[in-house]
Specification:
With 430 residues, the chain is an alpha/beta fold. 20% of the residues lie in helices and 21% in strands. It has two domains: 1-340, Collagenase (Catalytic Domain) (3-Layer(aba) Sandwich); 344-426, Immunoglobulin-like (Sandwich), CATH 2.60.40. The protein is globular. The N and C termini lie far apart (45 Å). The chain binds zinc ion. Zinc ion (ZN) binds at residues 25, 27, 248, 252, 258. Zinc ion binds at residues 25, 27, 248, 252, 258.
Amino acid sequence: MLLPEQLPMNKKVTYLLILLLTFGHWLVAQELDKCGHDLLLENALERDPAVVDRMAAVETFTQEWIANQANRPAQTREIITIPVVVHVLWNEPSEDISNLQIYSQIGILNEDFRMRNENINEIPDDFKALAVDVGFEFCLATLTPEGDLTDGITRTQTDWPCIGDFNTSTESGIPRLFYSILGGQDAWDPRRYLNIWVAPTCNAFLGFGFNPGQSVSPQEDGVVLDTDYFGNVCNDGRNHHLGRTTTHEIGHYFNLKHIWGTKGCEEEDDFVEDTPRQDNFHLGCPTHPSESCGSADMFMNFMDYTDDACISMFTIGQKNRMLAAINGPRSGLLNSNRCLFINRPRPDLGITVFPNPVGDCIHVEFNANFENDVTVLLYDSSGKLIYETINNASNIRSIPADGLPPGVYYLHLTNGSTKVTEQILVRDAK
Ligand SMILES: [Zn+2]
């Protein structure tokens, strides 16, 4: 395997070009490897040539961490909770997406990174043993950087209609998206939150995720998704409508490359041993086996460009890279404590949910915002409805929770035009 530090300087520049062209991972709707790549390359090179050294250092750390991991005792199956803040940028009111669309995306991430996705059964037999539960769960932040309560969502109206596209930048090439003063939204402390910007890109691309060290500034570090491809509520028959572009981009955020690496069988691969060598990306929904470079391609991997409905797995080798990232350049997320679940009144919502994390029961007390009958819906982290009742708002409602698996849940309460959602945590009884 050729590592960046072993390359002479002139080849380092080539490496940067290849890295950005190939791993730049702009998912462009029509021409997947064209305008977005050029735009990113131009933007990064002009603004910060040090990107290449930062990414090389991350790669060296990653390789060493994985090598050392082989000598360590088997890890416990610890679940790592990733605090997320979603920044919604909108120019047209229709782009100010609903909370439900955001929750649907968090649910999809919690399926895909925990191997709970329904299409896991479609993995071909020869790849089944490689599919893995990454062990990451995603939680909308409950605390702001200042320690105030939050629902983990910011909403910003902007004068820039295509602010998700890097073309919407200042004359010196700074993308407006990432800066409040330029019409976008500032990141929350990128060491402690996974920042996700959801913004119209005007069909420039579907999504974009930064490898560790790739962003020009920490304030631009995170993941960007086009408004129409975030979550799974925009099901209009397109091929990337199931929220898996976000899964793919967060794979990049945790240092995964595209599964084909650099195009061509003799070029750089994806630095993952258990993904077969592949000469290019796939579009649509191929039939297995689809062969290149002398073996069947793993086109059902989340890091290919295959349709959302036909991608279903990360591998053990990819998980190792993601674990290296969370124990290295992304380690600030581990002790972030921005996703605390606390027993708190929510006068802003008109309810009090207690305790949180919940014990045997979830108790809901209704305040003045609610009158008469309230519809109470409880969803699990993958968006499945698991409890439904109608309750008189004058009473405290108690929902039994002792049979629920540990994890994140969403409690939706609706009463006429009043709709609120509270994020709750069920802890393991042990
Ligand atoms: Zn990509």
